[in-house]
């Protein structure tokens, strides 16, 4: 694996790269061109790095990646590894990144050209100021197949745009509102300092990526722009409802990783603790929903064990997660409670179009 580059006093890579895009790619020959061209579309791209991590693809993903490496020398790098899953590909990309900041972009997704200019301008300004923020948050778009109106997720109610913030400056996050991986740009040194190693051969590790490093984030900034386009609705995608039901054990595993990464109250800023409890309640509820949607009595028992496991790990964390409205709703008793949950999921899916 390529070793991380040395850094300057303020953390910028010695290569002068501002932002590294890590592109985990498994059998993505059909989509990779759209993704890479969007990442290199900035008027100035010499301080952008695009790492295409071919995760043991069976198609021509690696050949496409190498073509872009030749086309954009010094900007695009192709990395090949034996298959380790999405988490393993992200781990490889983080270790190899030479940019001061890092962002994961799945190979079937892309970024908007105008937003890319805004993001790069902000990151360059942060570096030039000598005390760059640890995290930049942007909006993202659910770009669903066949849906003309695209749902844009923003954080205007929770964060003041354009200002340097701490966790205690955060406002109220909505019931199902959280900072998804698609919204995040981390300082590379923050991710590395957190010690995060995503589980290999596991789906839904983006929950962990958007959670575990947060205690190492001291400063952040929100840029109100629709940067990331999340392509959703293609056949076989891991977030389709039937696929998530089949892989619900992996959601349970991710939940356990998140529980173990949750700090106790009083050990981190209050604003950070409140947010992490909010997010943990959401992921716990997501896992619970798909256990219920399965209509499998064995999965109903797994749901009870999931919540019991949180309580066994930390009664205080369990108490704070369990008292959230979404958590209370997901623990309604009996068949009537499960009916309400299924009905609520169908309404949410129709309104937002997230699957």
From TrEMBL:
Domain (Glycosyltransferase 2-like): residue spans on this chain: 21-126
Pfam families, A to Z: Glycos_transf_2
Keywords: Transferase
Superkingdom of source: Bacteria
Molecular function terms, GO-annotated: transferase activity
Species of the source: Bifidobacterium parmae
Protein known as: Glycosyl transferase
InterPro entries tied to this protein: Glyco_trans_2-like, Glycosyltransf_2, Nucleotide-diphossugar_trans
